Amino acid sequence: MRINLALCNIRHSLPRTLVSLAGIGIAILLIFVQLGFRGAVENTAVMIYERMDFDVMVRSRDYLHFIDASQVPQSALDLAASAQGVEAVTPFHVTLVNWRNPHNADLRGMALMGVDPASGPFTSPEIAAGFNQLSSPRQVLVDTESSHEFGPVDGRQFSEADVGTQTEMAGQPVRIAGLFRLGTGLTANGSAIISTAGFIRMVPWDAIGRPSMGLVRVGKGQDPEAVAARIRQLNSDARGEPAVEVLTRQQVMNRELGRWIGETPIGFVFTLGVGIAFVVGAAIFYMVLSTDVGNRLREYATLRAMGYPAPWMAGVVLRQAFWLALLAFVPAALLSVVFYEITSILASLPIFMTVPRLVFVFLLAQLMCALSGALALRKLWQAEPASLF
Amino acid sequence: MTRIPLAWKNLTHDKRRLMVAVGGIAFAVLLMFQQRGFNHALFDSTVALLRAFDADLVVFNRARFALSSELRFDRGLLDIARSDRGVAATEPVYLENAVARLRRDGRQARPIRVIGLDASRPPLTDSETVKKLQGLIGRPGTALIDYRSKKNFGFNLWPEPGSVESGELAGQKISVVGNFSMGRDFAHEGNLLMPADDMARYFRYRAPRPLEVVDIGLIRLKEGDPVEASKRLQTLLGPTVSVMPREQLIRREIAFWARSTPIGTIFAIGAIMGFVVGIVICYQVLATDIADHMGEFATLRAMGYRNGFFYRLVFSQSLILSITGFIPGLIASWLLFQFTSLQTGLLMLITWDRAGVILLLTILMCVISGAFALRKLLSADPASLF
């Protein structure tokens, strides 16, 4: 009997319900879209580290972000290697250098990573397999995820057809010896891998005896937290001040995320976008619900005059709000997935739906609808039944 | 004469509903402003440096694909440029960002863009900054800091007159003695402005003599068409550099960032969302209003009022809604822009033309929803109401 009234209200005037659903649906879509954009920033921020194999990182205290990492002395890495529980320490070099487009000779900034071909830092076995193509310090592997502005022969993406191409990096001749697939996210539009020896030849002023970071793998069953603490202690001066920054994998991820979201204009802009979407979404929810309750005010007043208790009527409105939010949520969520697909193609960003986001937006929509419905009901309490006719 | 008051009275009849409607449209306006504003801000900020110069033409290394890529050219070319009959003056601009690290009180060293100009006659349009820079002459080791720089540098961005805050720049002592306005962007977290000859001491790696390689050359013309002059100078200076009107370089720089980052797409999508939100809100208002007054409208139709009357009525209502919604939306956007500018150091500007575009979009949005709502009204059958 009671459930019926809420559903009857929804079914009663279908066109009007559809307008309400469209309004709520748009608000939900808006929130999804903005969360998606912000999520894309988060995804790209740590993309590169997710694909690197390390438990603990040793890096400079002047580290800013992946391609602006500053350097650590090799001696700090050697100390780390001596720590109890450490299985291996791999030096890793990275910097931004100019890459010459082999077709139109334009220069573009590209991330250059110097790795030891014997103990590459990446989790992907395909990337490691490509290392044996690096037989001379003048050879590089290029990322197939790099922007087309670096000049692949087909104008879109580096492929087998580009292998063997001669060009110039940091003003020195290099030859494309192979490919890998990585993606560097927000930090650079493209990347290349070179052997450590090649890296040192290319940017000698930075690299000799000073890697950008040390990647530490801990032994089986070792607690990375404890190992990090030991490395920190080994690298501390007499006053206990560590000369380098030693972080666990999780800390590295959190810091990188914190930097992109909290410190860059892009992060702020997208966070604000999410905030605005919440406010606008709430305003639309309120508009829709208050119009809906307003339209049925006479009916509610009649029921009230007939003696139905206030909580019962509030229950009807809240159930109605629940159904509206639910019915609007399903198409809006489906539309968002389509929308994520389109945006990820148009803007080449990793935008995708996640289950926590679905749950979060669903609960948020329910909460906003319930609050708006409750607010809209105030009109009913204020009004005298008699004055409504 | 009687038409407008009916539209107005219909809307103002229920004050509460009008407030909700205006609020809803204002939010749609805010959303469009915000999305377009971010888009503009990210681009405006990257070219703020170029806009600050007093110059007609710019010269730069042909390979310099963005302002932040440090590819330079030989200063001698500027001397050659001066031999051209149309050239009034040339000025070199020196920039450093990759190796320019600023550190204060043992904090983290952060990269900052250092701008070096001839302090005796700085080629800037802002006379206040010119005066401040001239004040640094004879005070080696001093600089002005952009007050929009990131706070993480640790410097007081609004130094008291006469105060001196010291830090370390590229391994040498530097004192910040004043500020100026520029803005942060994608590539730079802040700016330092100093006399070029002093800057040379900090960046000796610019071999062989630091001031012999120039980042950007500015050219002021005596008269004549900048485009024509730029072609003439391009021939004169040869293929190692590009010569173009300053406005053209500004457009090129914006195009570079628009191409190499996805933000253009993202904010276009955001603005379209705002527009759609506005249509839905506006439709909701107009449709509800029409539904509530169906009886009255049917009566009017029975009395012989023609469809044209109702067209005008609904469009008047749309127009009133769009304008009354736009004004609070504009005010809220302005406040939001101030906040964003404060937080990010981005230049958040509302210009007349940009506000005009949003106003047109707002009107369009309300008119579209008015057209939808009208269909419903015209279906009012006089007979069925009695």
Q: What is the radius of gyration of chain B computed over CA atoms, rounded to a whole number of angstroms?
A: 28 Å
Distance between the termini of chain B: 29 Å
How many beta-strand segments of chain A? 9
Major sheet description of chain B: 11 strands, mixed
Account of the 3D structure:
- The complex is a heterodimer of chains A (389) and B (386).
- Chain A is of the alpha+beta class and 389 residues long.
- The mean pLDDT of chain A is 86.
- Chain A has helices spanning 2-12, 14-50, 74-81, 125-130, 196-202, 204-207, 224-234, 249-263, 265-295, 297-305, 310-346, 355-382; strands at 56-59, 86-100, 107-115, 139-143, 166-169, 172-180, 191-195, 213-218, 245-248.
- In chain A, 45% of the residues are buried.
- In chain A, helix 1 crosses helix 11 (310-346), helix 2 packs across helix 11 (310-346) and helix 2 packs antiparallel against helix 12 (355-382).
- Chain B is of the alpha+beta class.
- In chain B, the strands form 2 sheets. Chain B has an 11-stranded mixed beta sheet, sandwiched between helices. In chain B, strands 2-11 form a two-stranded antiparallel ribbon.
- The model of chain B has no long low-confidence stretch (mean pLDDT 88).
- Chain B is elongated.
- Chains A and B meet through helix 2, strand 3 and helix 9 of A and helix 2, strand 5, helix 9 and helix 11 of B.
